[in-house]
Amino acid sequence: MTEVFFYHGASDKIAAACALLSGAYAKKKPMLVYALEPEVANGIDRMLWTNAALSFVPHCRADSPLAAETPILITDTLETIPQDERLMNLSQEIPPGFSRFHSLIEVVGQDESDRLAARDRVKFYKDRGYEVRYFDLSDR
Hints:
- This protein is α/β, with parallel strands linked by helices.
- Helix content is 31%, strand content 25%.
- Helix 1 crosses helix 2 (38-50).
């Protein structure tokens, strides 16, 4: 069953997501980033490119010719991507087919609409028997 992790209370959702992606990359764990909104996908892409030179995190869009050899992929669709280890959800919706992934990482900011949508997703996961683990980012 998919493990579900909620990282909540991030003052900067994009920066928090990038920090988690950096940690995953350092541990050699591939990650698929689900970002429906173009501004979120572009923000992740931009921030990962501008990290300090020694902490660069290789990433690209899932439709890139380099996707097969890149550990961090950014996408707005999950249907055609074979990666099924870790999914980071940066949308306010339930990712379609999330249950095929070993881990689902939800990153939630402090924005009220983001928080309310996250509560709905928590209820959805719990109602279906998924254990949800929480990590508070508000102190960082």
